[in-house]
Structures are given as C-alpha cells and as structure tokens.
Amino acid sequence: MYRRNWLTQEYLGQAYALQFLQAIRFQISAGVPPGKAIVSAIEADPNPERQVRLHGAIDVLDRGGTIADAMMATGMYDHTAYTLLLAGERIGALQAVTGALGYLEDRKGSWKQLMAIAGLMAVELSTALSVPVTIDRLALPWVRDNLPRTNPEKLADYTQRLDHIAFLNQWWMVISYLGAFILVGLVLAWFAHPKARDWLAEHIVRHIPLVSSWLLHDALSRSGAMFATMLENGVRTSDAVDTLRLSSTNPVVQRLWQGIAKAIAGGAGIGQAIANSGVLRADEAMAAAATNGVKQLGGAFRAIAQNREWQAKRTAGQIVQATVGLTVVYIGINLALVMELFKLFNEGLDLGMGGITQGF
C-alpha cells in the first residue's frame, strides 16, 4: 500500500486526487460497477509510475475490500474522505464518491485561502527580516570605519550612541529571527503529523484571535455542507451525525457532533440535540431545531454552511489586514533604527566638518 506523504500527495497532489475521484464518479454515473470504475481509472492513467503507485487499490479490491478501503490504498485521501466514502456506501457508491468529492473540493478552496495568507506573510517577512541584518553587517561597520575627526569627548559620546543603536539592533534581530524560526517550526509541525496538528490546534491555534475564528467558521462550513449532502443523498440522520463525529478534525466541530450523537443516543430528538449543542449560534441552532423532516434539516444546515463560508472569507480578509498591519509596525521599528543611525551619521559629518575648521 502506498503511504500518503504530505508533501507529494496531500498538498501537491490535490488536483489529481480530485481528477481521479471525478473520473470514478463519471464511470459509476454511466453504469460501470464501482470496482471496475476504480480499475479503469487507474489503468487509463498515462503515467506508468503513477499506475504502479495506485495499484494498491486494485489489490484491495481483489481481496474483497470496500471502495473506501481501495481509495485509501491510493494514499491520496485522508480519514475524513475515508469516513465519508464508508458512510455513503450504505446507500450507494455514487453517493459515496459524490460526498467525498464535495469534501475535497471544499477543502481545496480552504487551503487556497490559507496558502494565500501564508504566502503574503512570507513575502512581507522575508523582506522585513533583511533590514536588521543589513544594518548589522553593512551599515554599522561602515559608520564605525568612518568615525568623525573631532575632540575625544565628542567622539566618545558619538561612539556610545553608536554602540547603543548596535545593541538595540542586535536584540531586535535576535527577537525577529527567533520569532521567525518558531513560526516556521510551528508550520512544519502542523503539516508533518496529525498528532502534532491536533496538539497545536488545541493548545496554541485556538487561542490566536482571528485564526481560531477562521478555522472554526471554515470547519463548520465544510462540516455543515457534508451533513446536508449526506441527508440529501439518503443517509440516515444518526449515521450522518456519527460519520461527522468520527471525521471532524476541528476540536470545536468535533464536540458539536459528539454532543448531538450523545443526545440522540440518550433518546433526544435531532432538533433538541442540535439546540443543546452549545456550539452553533443561537439563530443557527433555532433554525435547525425548528425544521420538520430530513429535507428541511438538510436545507437548514446548507444555509448554515453557506453563512459560515461567508464568515470564513470575511475573517480571512481580516487576517490579511492584521498581517499587513503587524508588518507595517515591524517595518516601522526597522525604519526607526535606520533613521536613528542616519541621524547619528549626519551628526558625525557635522562634527567632522567642525573638527576640520578647528584644526583636527
């Protein structure tokens, strides 16, 4: 079985994962049996190396495995996609593949937003981080090599102020690069392993303003849309809730479905379970609880998902604004150091001219 690698599959191979699933859905829609559709999609791939990599799915089918197991053997899909495929198989392969495809498309859009924000931060920080190094390696040594010719008292005061600027710049450089290394380390840890991601989400990310809100809105948007899709495709409400309980990765969203599942298991109706979840906003919970029947419940969660998607986009814009604002503050501190050094250098020129006129 090919093991999923985050660099080559999850983040660089999303387009092909969607294309592969779309090809399977097309064949199933045309009446091809699910197992044969998977085999056909693999054998039709023009890349021999990729065919070898995906052959594990055929081996799983030959051993009598499910569609979900075969898709996971390709190494391109995560646990959420697997859970959706497994749940959808209860009512039909087409519904299973459609549900997983919708989830992957939503996730791709979310990652595009996140990568755009991360890219903006990287460009801004890489430029800003070069300033303290330039001051330390180029500007300060040049000023030291061109000290003004003046009397010892004034020269001592001049070098003392120069040392003070160098001290502040060195500390600022240490703080800047230490912060950058920590940030890069957190990002790498987030992508490296699911357990590290869960720990960071629980102990760090959920306490960061705006970022935690964006993650919650995005997760609720995708989770609500998946719930609506499963209900529309005929999945029983309890099975849909259980599927999302097992597949949700956001702790808050996971708590929502766990609470609903527990309430239903205790004999509560779906409306009461949703109203008492404590995760949805009051208006969202009221809208979902007031529904009558599965169709209305699916429509309510579709509306909730669309509203949360809009809020996620708005929050992403606020994150960009905050990022730009913080970068401006950082650049402002760099500029203050540069201006102080420039001011001191100009004073040095004046001292040098004064020394020349006085015979120094």
Polypeptide structure, described:
The protein is mainly α and 360 residues long. It has helices at 6-10, 14-29, 34-43, 48-62, 67-73, 79-88, 93-145, 152-192, 194-203, 211-232, 237-247, 251-265, 270-275, 282-289, 294-357. The longest helix is centred in the last third of the chain and has 64 residues, at 294-357. It starts with 5 loop residues before the first helix and ends with a helix.
Short summary of the structure?
The protein is an all-alpha fold.
| Overall number of strands | 0
What number is the mean pLDDT? 78
Shape: elongated
Q: What composes the largest sheet?
A: none
| Overall radius of gyration | 29 Å
N to C succession of SSEs = HHHHHHHHHHHHHHH
- Give the helix tally: 15
**Structural class of the helices, strands and pairings?**
mainly alpha
Distance between the termini: 81 Å
Oligomeric assembly? single chain
Unreliably modeled segments: 1-12
What proportion strand?
under 5%
Helix content: over 70%
List keywords for this structure.
single chain, 360 residues, mainly alpha, 15 helices
